[in-house]
Design brief:
Elements: E1 16-20, H1 24-36, E2 40-44, H2 47-57, E3 61-64, E4 67-68, E5 71-72, H3 73-82, E6 91-95, H4 100-108, E7 113-116, H5 121-138
Parallel strand pairs: 1-2, 1-3, 3-6, 6-7
Antiparallel strand pairs: 4-5
Helix pairs in contact: 2-3
Length: about 140
């Protein structure tokens, strides 16, 4: 098993998590929690900014809400999964839309994870670590 401290390619680099959410308070709280959990976290407000951040930061994992001020969250997920620059990055959906049909759609869209808001920070962090470790092992 890969230790969390061994997951990055350089000793100083912490795993990067991109948080895409339309609410400023949620983005700021997510950044605070993820950084406290040992991640290098960055945030974006919507689909366009999220995609640009994914391309420029090359995060180890993306956590996204489905509510987007500038488009459809599912379209954002599809864009990430089809673009050569981002298609290998695991995407975790974190949404307040707590229905089984939304969870099923996340499976169909091949999201790596799915959580309803609110989600316990340690649960989310544990899943992100697992996804990052699996990605590192597959490279």
């Amino acid at each position: 098993m890969v230790e969390f401290s061994q997951m990055s390619t350089s000793p100083q680099r912490q795993p990067i998590v991109l948080v895409v959410d339309d609410h400023e308070d949620t983005r700021q709280m997510s950044l605070l929690v993820l950084r406290h959990q040992g991640f290098d976290a960055v945030a974006a407000e919507g689909a366009a900014a999220g995609f640009a951040a994914a391309c420029s930061n090359q995060p180890d994992v993306i956590v996204t809400d489905l509510a987007m001020p500038d488009g459809d969250g599912w379209e954002f997920v599809r864009q990430l999964s089809t673009d050569t620059r981002t298609k290998g990055i695991p995407v975790v959906v974190l949404t307040a839309c707590a229905t089984e049909s939304v969870r099923q759609r996340a499976r169909e869209e091949r999201c790596a994870g799915f959580f309803f808001k609110p989600c316990a920070p340690d649960v989310l962090a544990g899943e992100l670590r697992r996804l990052i470790a699996a990605r590192v092992q597959s490279v």
